[in-house]
Request: fold
Amino acid sequence: MIDIHSHILPGIDDGSRDTEMSLQMLERISGQDIDTVFLTPHFYADMNDPETFIRDRRSAFMNLVEALKERQTPCPRLLAGAEVHYYRGIGRSEHISKLCMGISRFILIEPMFRPWTPAFVDEIRELGYSEDLKVIIAHIERYFDQDKDLVNALISDPNIYIQANAEFFVDKKTRRRALKMFGEGSIDFLGSDCHNTTSRIPNLGEAMEIITDKFGSSALSRIEDNNDMLLHEAMEG
Ligand SMILES: [Fe+2]
Reply:
C-alpha cells in the first residue's frame, strides 16, 4: 500500500516538528504493510513560490535521509510531493507541474474551506481535463458541509481522483459513511495525512484493516491498481 498524503518531512509545515518526530512517525508506519510514502508538505501560493518550496523540501528531505542513515531506521520508500492549497488561477500557473508527486502528472490539491462555488468546481474539473495534470482531491471527507451537488460533481467526474484520509475510516462517527463511499467505488487513493505522533498519527494500516474486515482481503485491489499507476509515473515519468 502507498500512503499518498503525509506531513512527515521535518520542520517544513505544521507536520513533524523535527527529525526525531519524523523518525518516530516512520517507525510507526513500518509494520503497517505500507511500502511507499509520499511526503506532501503544504504549499500555499500566497506564502511561498514553487522554487523556494522545492528548495526547502529538498533540504528537509536530506535532513531526514541523514537521520535515517544514522539510526538505521527501517523505512518505506519515500517520494516527494506536495499538498497544494487551491488558489484562483491555479490552472494557469506556469510552475504548477513542479509540485506534482515525484515526476508524475498527479497533483494533490487541497480544495478551499470557504464555501465552494460553481466557478471553483469548474476550474478544478478543467484542470482534470488538461493533459499535463491528473488531479487528486485531498481528504474529500472534509468537504461534506459544502454544497452537495458541487461535491458530487467532483466525485463523479471520471477525470478527478479522490483521496480520503485514514481517519475517515478509523473514526467511529464517520466510519459508516467512509465504508459506504468506499463500497461505491468513490475513493481512489488513501492517505494518513499524518502530522505528528499524538493527535494526527500515521494510521493508514488501521484503516486498511477496517476496509478488509468489511469487504474482504481483495477490497483494496482497486486502490492498489491506482497506486501502481501513480508510482509508475512518479518514478519513471
Ligand atoms: Fe494534509
About this structure: The helical segments are 19-29, 50-71, 118-129, 148-155, 166-170, 175-183, 204-215, 221-236. The pocket of fe (ii) ion is lined by residues 5, 7, 83, 193 (CB under 6 Å).
